[in-house]
Amino acid sequence: MMIKKFSCVQGCSDCCIYREYYPSIEYGKIGVLLLPEEKTAIKKLAKKMSVQVKIIPRLAVGKEFPEKVIAYQMMGKNDDGDLCPFLDVESGERSPHGGFNCRIYPERPLACRAYPVIDAGSTATVATLDGHCQFCKKFSTTRAENSCLQQEVEALVRIKANVTAGKSKVWRYATATGRAGGDAMLPEGWVAES
């Protein structure tokens, strides 16, 4: 079944506002994935625009401890981890689809370009879509043919090519961010995946 080509639902900015707990609530909310070279570019954009950003590690590889960071994450600006710092919620201007404007849309990270594709799947023709996405909810699908989402799939493939562990152990950075509170979350820092 072929779905309609992806486009933002009228007035939606959910993917830029809300962050998820991943891989589970214990790790806290995640930020937008940034490749190492994107980290530098995002910092430059933030400085140029006088926007405060918090960029922390996301994934690393190493045998006994994290030796090399292979991905970073730009955290949301709210205390609960939500709201991309580059989303213009103050000016009242809106994007063509009626949602809030992204101040860096032409220079947005690959993770943003890949959305709503969250997995390219085990075949070259099927992609898994984010079930939280309003477009995906509206059209009742979490899978789509890659031909509908070629640019998004290509962005995800580029991310996956750069975020590989090889034979090393993968380390995930717990953010301790969100509303779970108490003992539900790990302290901020590295956790080895089993």
Radius of gyration: 17 Å
Helix count from the secondary structure assignment: 5
User: Strand share of the residues?
Assistant: 15-25%
Structural class: alpha+beta
The run of helices and strands is HEHEEEEHEEHEHEE
Question: Which word captures the global form?
Answer: globular
Terminal-residue CA separation = 37 Å
Number of strands: 10
Largest sheet: 5 strands, antiparallel
What is the average per-residue confidence, as pLDDT, rounded to a whole number? 87
Q: What is the spatial order of strands in the main beta sheet?
A: 1-3-2-9-10
Percent of residues in helical segments? 10-25%
Number of domains: 1
Topology:
Layout: H1 14-17, E1 32-34, H2 36-49, E2 55-62, E3 68-74, E4 87-88, E5 101-102, H3 110-114, E6 117-119, E7 126-129, H4 134-138, E8 143-145, H5 150-162, E9 169-174, E10 189-192
Antiparallel strand pairs: 1-3, 2-3, 2-9, 4-5, 6-7, 7-8, 9-10
